[in-house]
From TrEMBL:
Gene3D superfamilies: Farnesyl Diphosphate Synthase. Its cofactor is Mg(2+). The keyword Cell inner membrane does not apply. Signal peptide: none annotated. PROSITE patterns: POLYPRENYL_SYNTHASE_1. It comes from the Bacteria. Belongs to the FPP/GGPP synthase family. This is Polyprenyl synthetase family protein.
Length: 276
């Protein structure tokens, strides 16, 4: 039976491994590498965790290549944050409690750091696919979810939204901006494990709802939100909590028939109870 202690051990162990692998990936011998190491140097590692734990659920054992996959996902995530923080987008001076990458290294290097991280992820995914063809579909799926049809498309919808928007618009942005990278992590693990179409559909529903729940919880934790995209601008706090429960239930139901689903099932409640 899963409990908080067991879950946190798995969560933190995965995070420690990813942190170490990211750290040893870059040899900071120039400003760009240094900035890439800086931009990828923190965070909760949720996308890597999702990939690793979905892979474990589907095929039990992990190999060194799976960690490279998880790293590629974190690099794409980090690139999106670096670019999102730029003055032309969200214009944030801080990220993860530290100066954002462009604040520390300059806007020019900030842009190039994001570009280079996305490129690095694509190189890793191609290298993995070259050696193991079960990674071809998985790599392609990740890049599609990060593309104009996914995360980048969601960012455009967010940047170009009007002052007023409705729930459907907001959910569309969240599904693309947040859920699509969660889907990239979970579905690519299914593709790399060559699971059935039925399983892929279920894990996609899981990831989509988990991403949505993650974003709703983020909104509930936000202190000021009036000029931002936030669910509290289209419904009350109580209504948002009801919706969050519904979305979490959909995520849980979608994986209820999987064996070894305890970690992912626990993650749903864990993310909704977080206060950061
Ligand atoms: C610039 C192409 C491009 C996309 C930007 C990811 C994104 C799209 C913008 C960042 C702002 C935001 C609210 C995104 C939604 C996803 C999200 C909640 C990101 C933060 O993820 P965490 O909490 O970050 O997992 P850590 O720091 O833990 O890695």
């Amino acid at each position: 039976m899963m409990n908080k202690e067991k879950f946190l051990k798995i969560f933190n162990d995965d995070k420690d491994i990813i942190d170490k692998k990211v750290k040893s990936y870059f040899s900071p011998d120039g400003i760009l590498e240094e900035a890439m190491a800086y931009a990828t140097g923190g965070g909760k590692r949720i996308r890597a965790f999702l990939y690793l734990e979905c892979k474990k659920m589907f095929s039990c054992n992990l190999c060194e290549n799976d960690y490279k996959f998880a790293l590629a996902l974190e690099f794409i995530h980090a690139y999106s944050l670096v670019h999102d923080d730029l003055p032309a987008m969200d214009n944030d001076d801080f990220r993860r409690g530290q100066p954002s990458t462009h604040k520390k290294y300059g806007e020019d290097i900030g842009i190039l750091t994001g570009d280079a991280l996305l490129n690095e992820a694509a190189i890793m995914l191609f290298q993995l696919a070259k050696d193991n063809d079960s990674y071809i579909k998985a790599g392609l799926y990740i890049l599609q979810r990060a593309s104009r049809f996914g995360m980048i498309g969601g960012q455009v919808l967010d940047l170009r939204r009007g002052a007023s928007y409705d729930l459907d618009y907001l959910l569309d942005v969240y599904k693309k901006k947040t859920s699509d990278l969660f889907k990239a992590a979970c579905v690519s693990a299914g593709l790399a494990s060559r699971v059935s179409k039925e399983y892929l559909e279920k894990i996609e529903i899981f990831a989509s709802n988990l991403g949505l729940a993650f974003q709703i919880q983020d909104d509930l934790l936000e202190e000021t939100y009036e000029d931002e995209l936030n669910i509290l601008n289209v419904m009350s706090k109580d209504e948002a909590i009801v919706l969050l429960d519904k979305v979490n239930k959909r995520a849980k139901d979608s994986i209820k028939d999987f064996q070894n689903n305890e970690v992912l099932s626990y993650l749903i409640d864990y993310l909704s109870s977080r206060s950061y």
